[in-house]
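Worked Example 4.2. Consider the chain below.
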Amino acid sequence: TNISILLPAHPCPINGNEALIKWPWKVVRYTKDSVLNTYAGESGRGTEVPQYSVDQILQSQAALAINLTLPEMDLLALRSQASIDSRCTETTASVKPCVQDYCLFNLETDPCEIKDLSSTFPSLVGALTHVLGGYRQIMVPPVPNTQDPRALPHNWQNYWAPWADTTGTGMAPPHTPLTSTLVICLLLLLLRSL
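Applying the procedure from the previous section yields the following structure tokens:
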């Protein structure tokens, strides 16, 4: 069974939202009414967005880091497969907020989550919320949302990377471009001496 938890099924102390996908169905519930709970509108397709450039993708730092080498046609095919062809035409004003009650969406026919089908398929909502309840029983509450500025990518050559030492007793010193260069130079000197 293809089941994925989108948000913590355990009532999250941070926001309390929960959702579950069992393709093609998604059941979702929010704890507060918020503009963030609904479709935000089209983005990434207008004239304000630069034209898609396969060359820029292949020359990006991310592509270089993972040694990405794909033909242009393969990249364009992947982009096409990842795009939702049907644009969301209904406005958020027509969407019932999923606050306190669960909403049910068919992601295959309604990828923009506009039409709530919970009243049409109440037994399916019950089955999916039962699965959520099972996860709620075994999930560990999330760790408090604290941020450590030492983890920021600018400390690690602009990559997200582990920053805590392996013993868990403290933080590893920041990995700066200067220390990287020194380590590489020392390694090269060591190799030349062999």
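The chain is about 30% helix and 10% strand. Strands lie at 3-7, 18-22, 25-29, 103-106. Compare this with Example 4.1 before moving on.
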